[in-house]
Amino acid sequence: MKNESLGITETQYFHLPGELQLESGKKLSSVTLAYETYGSLNQDRSNAILVCHALSGDAHAAGWHPGDQKPGWWDTMIGPGKALDTDRYFVICSNVLGGCKGSTGPSSTNPATGKPYGIDFPVITIGDMVKAQKALTDHLGIGKLFAAVGGSMGGVQVLQWAVSYPDSLSKAIAIATTSHSSPQQIAFNEVGRIAIISDPKWNEGNYYSQSPPVHGLALARMIGHITYLSDDSMQYKFGRRLQDKNKYDFDLAFDFEVESYLHHQGQSFTKRFDANTYLYITKALDYFDLTKNGSLRDGLRDVQAKFLVIGVSSDWLYPTYQSREIVAALTANNKDANYREIESNYGHDAFLLETGQLSYLITNFLSHVSVADIMKKDIVSIQEGISIEETARVMCREGITHLPVVSKSGELAGIITSWDISKAVALKYTSPEHIMTREVITASPDESIESAAKKMQRKNISALPVVDAGRKILGIIGSDEINRLVGGYI
Questions:
Q1: Total structural domains in the chain?
Q2: Could you give the CA distance from residue 272 to residue 270 in angstroms, rounded to a whole number?
Q3: ∠ CA 424-428-432 to the nearest 5 degrees?
Q4: pLDDT reported for residue 102
Q5: For 101, which of 5, 241, 368, 467 is 20 to 30 Å away at the CA?
Q6: CA-to-CA distance for 3 and 234, rounded, in angstroms?
Q7: pLDDT at res. 407
């Protein structure tokens, strides 16, 4: 198996048609989303994975841009043979609405004035960001994402996808995240915003034609960066070591390595990020709350995706109890949800750094596909007692070769194939009762694809009805669906 970089990648741009209706009631026109894709979309467009970035991320998740000193921010996870295997999946990553890396945000030109929006940009929400992403996936012809994955604010977007578009997402992977911003998280965001707007060069957000508020933005980043680490990681990385000296200077300049590190993080951040964008995105995070009338269970009641929720043992910005709350609410709604915890001293940043643990968890979750994931749910069936002629008409009209027969109570009674119809005509039978198979080989919704494929191969059949414990029919799975997914079990 390959495990290499994607090489040179390119950012593309999608221009949303018309206006984007925002949760605030305002509308935003001329919206652009910057995005990148990796791998190829399969024939039935069922292998797409959306990667959602964190607060300071962008669309460049993997591969290299010409002249770059380092690859995309999740290059260790995306590419041939990696967890998000581009030989198998079509991976998409877009810069969020409100961003400053090619997507429409405060630094973009306001079509009404011809100048940057600044603080005339409308306040946005995580829901607005996801709504724009949904327009992008629609544009790409993707009716249903195979998965969405993200950490931190990326995990927040994944959760919003599952709630806002339950029929458009099969699997959700939310890492080091929360279902609603806590008072502590809001507090840290507010301190960062105050650092920016207290910088005189912020100038009420109108700084694009002059010197930007780099001091305030650097300070906001320094504060934020502390929350991404852990006490253990800072002790290991810095201890109390001095920076380029052997003794204290006894002045107010910085002495310690950790001080130098934070100053470097703040200053480098100002070269790639917009201060107004920081204000707007942190505000969107503050507003994020998936509870309904105070109940997370009610807020997650309608989700359909299978969930993998991953916490980080040393994360104090998004503590593991918040991940566990998500899984508890999903489980209370009888949803398919699993919780896993990464053992790491890196703190919140572990979702970017613990490639080995994450790759293992994500690879297993994505590759464990059950019958329910790919079965056809909109199936046609007939009730016992109808004529051969009507049965034949149904099969011809729907273009199907396998037709389940159900009892009046809805239980599976048998199955009729196109071969059975030919046999009935030749023998001049008038009722399907004489030709339908009653001892039907079936699959359960939680059965593995491999198990269903082996049943078909062993019995030389090309489709299996999917039934629940009470023999009520839920769907049907055929060899075509399996072959598209795993390439040749049958």
A1: 2
A2: 6
A3: 40
A4: 97
A5: 5
A6: 31
A7: 87
Q: Is residue 338 part of a domain?
A: yes
pTM recorded for the entire structure: 0.81
CA distance between the termini of the chain:
23
* pLDDT < 70 positions in the chain: 1-3, 481-490
Q: Which residue's structure tokens are 């918040």?
A: 322
- Angle between helix 183-197 and 275-287 (nearest 10): 160
If asked whether residues 340 and 458 sit together in one domain, one would say no
In a domain, 6, yes or no: no
Burial of 173 (0-12, 13-18, 19+ CB in 10 A): buried
* 8 A C-beta contact, residue 195 and residue 219: yes
Give the pLDDT confidence score for residue 483 in this predicted structure. 62
pLDDT at position 309? 98
> To which H or E segment does residue 339 belong?
strand 337-342
End residue of a domain, out of 347, 370, 393: 370
The helix (H) or strand (E) run that includes residue 13 is: strand 12-15
CA distance 97 to 94: 9
Q: Residue 1: what pLDDT? A: 44
**Residue 253 CB-half CA count within 13 A:** 6
Residues 193 and 59 in one domain: yes
- Dist CA 297 CA 239 (whole Å): 43
Question: Last residue of a domain, which of 326, 348, 370?
Answer: 370
Q: For residue 458, what are the domain limits?
A: 374-486
Q: Is residue 190 part of a domain?
A: yes
Kindly state whether residue 343 falls inside one of the protein's structural domains: yes
Bridge partners (DSSP) listed for residue 175? 151, 310
pLDDT of the residue at 371: 84
88 lies in the same domain as 188:
yes
CATH of the domain at 460: 3.10.580.10
Report d(CA 462, CA 306) in Å as an integer.
Answer: 27
Domain shared by 364 and 411, yes or no: no
Cβ atoms of 186 and 193 within 8 Å: the answer is no
Q: What is the CATH number of the domain that holds 287?
A: 3.40.50.1820
Q: Do 307 and 415 share a domain, yes or no?
A: no
361 and 401 share one domain: no
Handedness of CA 274, 280, 284, 285 (dihedral sign): positive
Task: Note whether 322 and 468 are same-domain residues.
Answer: no
Q: Which residues are designated catalytic?
A: 152, 315, 348
Contact 155, 177 (CB under 8 A): yes
Check whether 221 is labelled as a binding-site residue. yes
**Please, which residues bridge with residue 149 across strands?**
51, 173
CA distance 319 to 348: 9
What per-residue confidence (pLDDT) applies to 485? Answer: 55
Amino acid at 426: A
User: Does 349 carry a binding-site annotation?
Assistant: yes
Q: Given this model, what pLDDT does residue 488 score?
A: 32
| 466 and 340, same domain (yes or no) | no
What pLDDT, on the 0 to 100 scale, is given for residue 461?
A: 83
